[in-house]
């Protein structure tokens, strides 16, 4: 069963990666960079301070920061534990695929998918009643995660698991915020 799943994963990756068109390489290389998304993070921060009191915005920002640290640690520990080679480092397929990036660490699960979906989920949950178009925030993690297949560094299962871990982590931190931080922030108001 596991072997069939891994074969499907490899075959699907080779197919999807093969759909890449050289004319779009620059676009996907930009999309896959964390630095490209800094303006979005700044927008999230601005929205926090526009929609909430300064104190509440600070607590929400610190919760997002805590989530980012948590998801980075979980992703790193999992990658080291599972030790799955990235497609660009897998000898049986690396001559069949388009490779635009060449990281040397492990593949499972995608840190790009887990971090982007977790942060987006948490920010969405914080802002969904204040910003009508908050659902559009999810365009970022979808593009970010898909870019990892395009540039040749993640299998589809890496992306899917990273996405699920990210979404669940976002929900978890939202629940923790609601349970432990929100009551304290409302009690402390003058």
From TrEMBL:
The keyword Thylakoid does not apply. It comes from the Bacteria. InterPro entries: PAP2/HPO (IPR000326), PAP2/HPO_sf (IPR036938). Pfam families: PAP2. Residues 59-174 form the Phosphatidic acid phosphatase type 2/haloperoxidase domain. The chain crosses the membrane at residues 26-50, 57-77, 106-127, 134-153, 159-177. This is Phosphatase PAP2 family protein. Keywords: Membrane, Transmembrane, Transmembrane helix.
């Amino acid at each position: 069963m596991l072997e069939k799943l891994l074969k499907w994963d490899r075959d699907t990756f080779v197919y999807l990666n093969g759909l890449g068109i050289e004319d779009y390489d620059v676009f996907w290389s930009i999309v896959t960079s964390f630095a490209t998304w800094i303006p979005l993070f700044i927008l999230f921060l601005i929205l926090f301070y526009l929609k909430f009191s300064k104190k509440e915005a600070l607590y929400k920002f610190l919760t997002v920061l805590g989530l980012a640290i948590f998801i980075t640690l979980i992703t790193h520990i999992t990658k080291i534990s599972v030790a799955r080679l990235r497609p660009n480092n897998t000898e049986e397929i690396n001559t069949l695929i388009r490779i635009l990036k060449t990281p040397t660490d492990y593949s499972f699960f995608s840190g790009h998918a887990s971090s982007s979906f977790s942060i987006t989920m948490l920010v969405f949950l914080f802002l969904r009643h204040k910003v009508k178009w908050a659902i559009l925030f999810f365009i970022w993690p979808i593009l970010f995660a898909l870019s990892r297949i395009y540039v040749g560094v993640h299998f589809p299962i890496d992306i899917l698991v990273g996405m699920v871990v990210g979404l669940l982590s976002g929900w978890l931190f939202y629940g923790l915020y609601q349970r432990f931080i929100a009551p304290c922030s409302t009690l402390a108001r003058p």
